[in-house]
Amino acid sequence: MDITENEFFSENLIKINKMISNFLVVSNIVPPLLILLTYLGLFKIEYDFSIKLFCVTVIFSIVDVAFIKFCANKKIPMYVGTVFLNLLITFMGTNARIGIYISYCFPPIFASLYYNKGLSYRILAISYIMMLISLYFRAQNIVFTGNFPGQTPLQWYFPCAAGFTIEFFFTALIVRYLTIRNSDTLRNFLGMIADRSKFLSELDENNKKIVKMNADFELKNMELKDTQFKIIQFIAECLGSHDLFTGRHVVHTRTFVEIIAKKLRDNGFYSDVLTDDVIALYSSAAFLHDIGKIHIPEGVLNKVGKFTDDEFMLMKEHPAEGKKLLEFLPTIEDGKFNEIAKEMAYCHHEKWDGTGYPNHISGTQIPLCARIMAAADVLDALISQRLYKDPMSIDQAMEVFEKSMNSHFEACIAQAVIDCRSQIEEIDREYKKQETEKFKNELEWWRRYHGISN
User: Are 323 and 292 in contact (CB under 8 A)?
Assistant: First the structure.
């Protein structure tokens, strides 16, 4: 028997003990009721018998309650209650004027509720013996009252006992059937519960294994994503070795893309598209938006002065070159990252009013990721050092975006940039603090390499 069965039988034992105890307590109203009915002439029971019966019911109920409350072994109250119930019925059955017939069946039926075959059979035997004893004393009282003249108590007793025995035999069959059926049904049910518990336990173990597998898979996935990100970052760094400013530029724009996209979502625009996962893809893909500059000659990329028309036309090739290069990028995030990276690289110089390049597309024809990338690209170009210009102040940069609403940039994106002013100022200050010395060293090397004096 497992813990589930033990718990059930213990709880059931307590409940049936209380039920029998309540039955014995309620029986205390029977003697006063008999006295009242006799007083009213509706019944005829000797007062002394009713008083004796009252004493019996009070003693039985008090003792039974005491056993239930104070006895640690709950099986003892089980026997006390059923035996007291037998004794009470037996005592009432000795009175010639109280008809006790089917009541002899009550104790065995109550006993069958314990789901205990041994108890049921023992109480059944006790009830039968008590019934015979009760009938014997009843025979003495019946003959004594003169209700059966010419018969001795034994002459009345044996036929009556035989009849009651036959009735009790059928009671015994019913009790036995109920006991076996209830016991077998219960055990089958508990067996099902045990099987279910075992199944749930196995299911829980499997779930734990699945959770661990998912955790391991998630860890591997995160490691893979981290590796992919580092590779992308490495590509950007390689590009930085070709272009004096592009390496830092792609790092800056990655950060700006993220904060602009989040502010755009916070302002209520494209919230259905700009989920955290999508914004993460946008910011990672920003690393590769200028990848096409690898195909631009270094002399053009790092020119100090203004581009000639031919040089500018050559520079305008880098979006298309970037898209071509990204066609060879291995699939990342089921291809979502690849598509975003290509759109950013190819369309980040397109303008909202259609005056950009390379295809002069306008409005929402420009992918959202590229429209955000364009804003981040221009923002960093304005506030960062270049060979041909000094950085613009934050105030001046914000004015540019105010004037460029619905021309260079979609109005809501330009406004998102303006709304991020304090963040941009803090980020820009931190980047300049980190990069000033490195920039000076790179610039000095570049000038020496190209033979340019200060």
Answer: yes
CA 40/CA 31 separation, integer angstroms: 14
Mapping DSSP to helix (H, G, I), strand (E, B) and coil, where does residue 386 land?
Answer: strand
* Measured distance between the N- and C-terminal CA atoms of the chain, rounded to whole angstroms: 94
Cis preceding-peptide flag for 77 (omega within 30 of 0): no
Query: DSSP for 183-237?
Result: HHHHHHHHHHHHHHHHHHHHHHHHHHHHHHHHHHHHHHHHHHHHHHHHHHHHHHH
Angle CA 154–156–160, to nearest 5: 110
Q: Which residue in 9, 22, 135 sits closest to 81, CA to CA?
A: 22
Q: Which amino acid is at 279?
A: I
Tell me: the pLDDT tens digits for 62-86?
Answer: 999 999 888 888 888 888 888 888 8
Q: What is the pLDDT of residues 374-399, one digit of tens each?
A: 999 999 999 987 766 788 999 999 99
Token reading at 385: 């050092």
Measured between alpha carbons, how far is 415 from 260 in angstroms, rounded to an integer?
9
